[in-house]
Every structure is written in C-alpha cells, then in structure tokens.
C-alpha cells in the first residue's frame, strides 16, 4: 500500500479589486472578486515542505492588482490575461483557473442625468467568468448569478404522481419565481464578451417571460434551448434555479377571501432545479468546469 498525493491546486481566493477609469471627467469603475488557482507539479511542497515550485498566493494577489492598473476590460478578458500569465510563468505550472465575479454599479441620476462620479450598487445580480488554461487548451465560461425573476401568471404545475406523502394541490395558475444562476461555455476565446453576455442575459429573461411554464424544469430547458438557438458561440449552458415558492395566504380567519392576491414568499425550503442544455455535436470539455461547484 502506498499513500500518494491526489489532485491539488492552490491560489488566492476572493481578491477584491475596484478599478477606476479617470481618463475623462466622466469616471467609470469595475468592481471585481478574483480567485486564482494554479495546477501543476506541486508535490514537493505537499510531501516535503519544499516551496521551490510555489508561486506564492501573495504574488498571485499582487498580479491581480498590477494587471488591473492599465484597465480591466471584460471579466472574461481579464481572466484570460491572468490565466495565461500564471500558466506561462514557470515550466512546472501546467494550468491555471481564474474565476471572476463582477458587481454592477449604476450612475446616480441627478436632475435626470447620470452623475459623473457617483454610483449606486446595481443589486444582488452578479456577472461571472471562469477561464481555464490547461496545457494547450483554453476555455471560457461566462455566467451570471442571482438574476431574480418572477411571473405572476403563465405557470402551472399538475400531473405529478401522488404517493402517501403527496399533499401538494395541483395548480393551473401560480406565481413562478427563481434566482437564476447560469454558466455557459463558449466555443471560442476570441469573442466580444460584453456583447455576448448582454445578449445571452436578454435571451434568458425573454425565454423565462414568454414560456408558458408547466414546471420550472420546463422553463429551465426552454431558457437553455433559446440561448443555444440564438447564440452559436455558446457550446453548452448549465443552470441552477431555486423554486422560490409563493403560497396563497388563508385569510378566512379574518372573514376575507383571497382571490389570488396575497401570498407568503417563503424563503426555505425551496425546490432546487438544475440542469444542462447542450449541443450534441460539440465535444465536452469537463476541464472547463473543474473546480466550479454548484451544478450537477
Ligand atoms: O415546477 C416545479 N417543479 C417541481 O419539481 C416541483 N415540486 C413541487 O413541489 N413543486 C414544483 N414545481
């Protein structure tokens, strides 16, 4: 029996960098959370405490700030710059994964126009990018999280089996609400990432709104299918969608009826609907997803 080191990676997690562009009086800013992981031959550090191969996590953090000095660009482009740099820095580093979360800020409106240098946080929604360099291969995942959506009708749920524990009433009309987390893989790395991100996000929203839903599962598939139909640069999309249940409140104790007007927005437990929608003619790239949790 021999004990051996298994898969490993290391890096600096959650480097919070805010970069301000002051090149004109109308400033702009990007607000990022950047995590790097290096892959390669780090066995001596694990087995013998020999750090000769260890590009420090402190240097990785510093690299993120230094690379932000001259502009960040899209989260995907920033991730590509960093991942290529790390993967190319020493012979024993064979790959790098850089994950970027980007938080939106909107200009504060003053007298009807957006202020030059005052902003408000856009909300909980986050844009994400994960770049993986693995030897000669490079992959880009774009994505978003906490895109909270709700429709007040156009959602049914019925036809499910009833075992002895099934109490849920069938419904032909309910509120459907979720917080979409989605990640999609591009077939290419030389793309207009900002334009594609906006396009895919719009497609997800439009498909959620326009699908007459018989289950959140059906909405998830319709949203993924619409993205693959409209955006040929997307190879596959994976989604995680909690079913944010809204229960009609019984107002009869107060002598009131409730004609589908007043709901309790329950926060837990919630159904959790997850799935991938793929093109069957595009080869899989599991390395692109390695280290990205939260999807089946
Ligand atoms: O859209 C839904 N899918 C389910 O799988 C499910 N299960 C449940 O209790 N309610 C719902 N709604």
TrEMBL record:
SUPFAM superfamilies: Tetrahydrobiopterin biosynthesis enzymes-like. It catalyses: urate + O2 + H2O = 5-hydroxyisourate + H2O2. Urate binds at residues 57-58, 157, 174, 217, 243. One of its GO terms (molecular function) is urate oxidase activity. It is an enzyme of class 1 (oxidoreductase). GO terms for biological process: purine nucleobase metabolic process; urate catabolic process. Keywords: Oxidoreductase, Purine metabolism. This is Uricase. The active site is at residues 12, 57, 245. Catalyzes the oxidation of uric acid to 5-hydroxyisourate, which is further processed to form (S)-allantoin. Gene3D superfamilies: Urate Oxidase. It comes from the Bacteria.
